[in-house]
Amino acid sequence: MSEQSAVEWIGAIAGLACVWLLARASIWNWPVSILNTTLYFVVFLRARLYADALLQVVFTLLGVYGWWSWRYGGAQGAELPIRRATRRQIALAAALALAGVALSALVLARATDSPVPVWDSSVLVLSLVA
């Protein structure tokens, strides 16, 4: 087994473990998630999927924040509310997504050797907008 495939396998197993831990409301899902995103950063960087690699950095930072939030909660440890987006927010998000994909794809196409700049950008921007 090559080093690359070992990193992919460990990353995939960490991802599955993270989902399993999250379904059981275990705080351990956060460090396992951070391991997963760190490993996939390496996988995507080696595959020249630079936007996906950047997304893993964002996910790692969000994982650190999520771990902290889970541990210490919202204001005075209160449960954080879940809300729905308004139609206006959804329309704004769609417009930002289209513009973001176009801009990111342009940057990747001109400044990197990315083999699939539009698809790579789509994953990055749509994930961030979501």
Task: Explain the overall architecture.
This protein is mostly helical and 130 residues long. The chain is built from 5 helices and no strands. It has helices spanning 3-23, 29-46, 50-72, 87-111, 117-129.
Give the SSE map.
Blueprint: H1 3-23, H2 29-46, H3 50-72, H4 87-111, H5 117-129
Helix pairs in contact: 1-2, 2-3, 3-5, 4-5
The ordered string of helix (H) and strand (E) elements is HHHHH
Parts with pLDDT < 50 across at least 5 consecutive residues? none
State the helix count.
Answer: 5
Oligomeric description of these chains: single chain
Mean pLDDT value: 92
Name some characteristics of this structure.
0% strand, flat, 77% helix, single chain, 130 residues, mainly alpha, 5 helices
Overview in brief:
This protein is mainly alpha-helical and 130 residues long. 77% of the residues lie in helices and 0% in strands.
